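Try this one yourself first.
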């Protein structure tokens, strides 16, 4: 019996006090569970790279804003945002020596990195929700001039989701700190985007994105790992500390790069910056402390917000 037949078959004799569950509600719950599992896997993949804390969340938020600014339907915006959250799924196949390299990549290492869109597409192949994310995962490194990868697509041959995520991914890379360079100011990154319109990035989408930036509507995302939660500084490594919304004073966070331990303290009343400040303790995290774990609370919020709209 097919899944749809199972979900929609009539019950033999439902008791009055226990009405038959609604098939559409069951299917929606199943989709939400499937989506949450995919997002959790993508999150753990991201956590292998200590300098990308919050990258998937930021790219997804940028993508949702850009689609809305461009006038896309809510269902389209939601699905593109989901694809943006999953866009680096294929990096599960990239060796740590390449993914965590603290400097520019060699040509051979860059060739390895370039495999991740194909790997991600293969991972999604056959998944019930592949249609929500496959285009973003597979085409987010294509360029308008045909010089991208993995397929060398050009112009409108690049799916809409790929064009959106390509732009948002590049902007986040520019504004994020890496071991070998500091992140650019938002204004500088927007200038880079403008200079690449029509060659690297879609011109119409790029103008919409720059308009968002000019209005200050990207500032609450850049340098953050959740709404209202900025990345914090490890004294050794820079902005690598991710504080989760549910964490409280007295709890610890760890730098994913050097393993340094930090304790969260409530900021002084009236002080600028986050409500909780990460203060180094001088200790180091154990292997268990540094184990990559998905922020399931954030993922559940994302699923609640996005899945219903994606299904619309």
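Now uncover the answer:
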């Amino acid at each position: 019996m097919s899944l749809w037949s199972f979900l929609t078959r009539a019950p033999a004799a439902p008791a009055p006090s226990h009405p038959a569950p609604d098939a559409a509600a069951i299917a929606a719950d199943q989709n939400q569970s499937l989506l949450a599992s995919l997002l959790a896997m993508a999150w753990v993949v991201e956590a292998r790279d200590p300098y990308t804390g919050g990258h998937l969340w930021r790219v997804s938020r940028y993508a949702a804003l850009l689609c809305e600014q461009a006038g896309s339907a809510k269902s389209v915006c939601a699905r593109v945002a989901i694809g943006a959250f999953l866009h680096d799924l294929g990096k599960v196949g990239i060796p740590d020596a390449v993914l965590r390299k603290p400097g520019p990549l060699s040509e051979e290492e860059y060739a390895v990195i370039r495999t991740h869109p194909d790997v991600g597409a293969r991972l999604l192949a056959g998944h019930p929700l592949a249609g929500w994310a496959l285009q973003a995962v597979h085409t987010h490194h294509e360029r308008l001039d045909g010089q991208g990868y993995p397929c060398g697509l050009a112009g409108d041959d690049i799916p809409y989701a790929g064009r959106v995520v390509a732009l948002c991914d590049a902007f986040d890379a520019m504004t994020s700190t890496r071991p070998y360079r500091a992140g650019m100011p938002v204004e500088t990154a927007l200038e880079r985007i403008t200079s690449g319109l029509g060659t690297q990035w879609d011109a119409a989408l790029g103008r919409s994105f720059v308009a968002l930036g000019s209005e200050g509507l990207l500032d609450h995302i850049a340098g953050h790992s959740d709404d209202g939660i900025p990345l914090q500084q490890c004294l050794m490594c820079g902005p690598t500390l991710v504080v989760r919304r549910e964490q409280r004073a007295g709890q610890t966070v760890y730098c994913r790069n050097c393993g340094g331990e930090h304790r969260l303290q409530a900021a002084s009343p009236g002080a600028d910056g986050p409500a909780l400040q990460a203060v180094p303790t001088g200790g180091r995290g154990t292997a268990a402390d540094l184990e990559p774990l998905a922020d399931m609370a954030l993922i559940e919020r994302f699923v609640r917000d996005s899945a219903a709209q994606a299904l619309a």
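Discussion: The longest strand covers residues 276-284. DSSP finds twelve helices and seven strands in the chain.
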